[in-house]
């Protein structure tokens, strides 16, 4: 075999190897969060005829153990047969999960956040055609010494009605890995915090769930997964006089 032919073949192999590496790395990055799930979601108010709005969150996320940073993809879908018209998606963090930024969205002022939440963004959508979806890149932090939840309500553009709400739903793990570079968390799993330091007292599950939420805890218990906006908006039934 001539040296020229050998060089040509070697060059082809190098090129093929680089191409394969690029394809594999791109595929791995796209699959990091796994398929989307509507776990913890529920219809609240009836949407217009032909409109069926839902949301998706990744089945798993990964939290950097040093920086506490994590990336989440929030998706809103119209599974109906009619366009949605003007709506908005809210992305709200609770407890150990704090939403730092949502691409293309605006932060909710502190006095506009639901009780018990620590952060939130509002994402206006002029129209979501039937059969289409829209995804948002969410930058967040997760304090692994706490539990953490996220909530995705889909509302009318004025917030008067909530067509769908996913959560507040937890991300967590029952097997903390503080010595690893990152900790994987699963959607719908209550987080088991890492062991407290020598100066901290361990917290019971009841305290972790109820105390941080304060007044919102009662609202969530009474409304279930329907969530805060729905329970606060509905007037309480009046007792009938006897």
From TrEMBL:
Keywords: Signal
Signal peptide: 1-30
Top-rank lineage group of the source organism: Bacteria
Protein name: Uncharacterized protein
């Amino acid at each position: 075999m001539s040296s020229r032919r050998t060089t040509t073949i070697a060059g082809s192999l190098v090129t093929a190897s680089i191409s394969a590496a690029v394809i594999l790395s791109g595929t791995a990055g796209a699959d990091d969060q796994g398929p989307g799930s509507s776990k913890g979601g529920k219809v609240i108010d009836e949407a217009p005829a032909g409109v069926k709005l839902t949301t998706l969150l990744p089945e798993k996320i990964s939290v950097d153990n040093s920086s506490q940073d994590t990336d989440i993809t929030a998706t809103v879908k119209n599974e109906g047969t009619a366009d949605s018209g003007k709506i908005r998606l809210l992305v709200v963090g609770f407890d150990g999960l704090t939403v730092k930024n949502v691409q293309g969205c605006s932060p909710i002022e502190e006095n506009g956040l639901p009780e018990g939440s620590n952060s939130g963004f509002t994402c206006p959508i002029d129209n979501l055609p039937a059969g289409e979806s829209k995804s948002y890149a969410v930058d967040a932090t997760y304090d692994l010494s706490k539990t953490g939840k996220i909530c995705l309500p889909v509302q009318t553009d004025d917030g008067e009605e909530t067509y769908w709400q996913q959560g507040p739903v937890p991300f967590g793990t029952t097997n903390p890995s503080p010595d690893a570079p990152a900790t994987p968390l699963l959607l719908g799993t209550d987080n088991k915090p890492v062991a407290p330091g020598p100066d901290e007292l361990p917290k019971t599950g009841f305290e972790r769930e109820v105390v941080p939420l304060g007044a919102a805890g009662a609202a969530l218990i009474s409304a279930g997964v329907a969530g805060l906006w729905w329970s606060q908006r509905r007037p309480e039934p009046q007792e009938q006089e006897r």
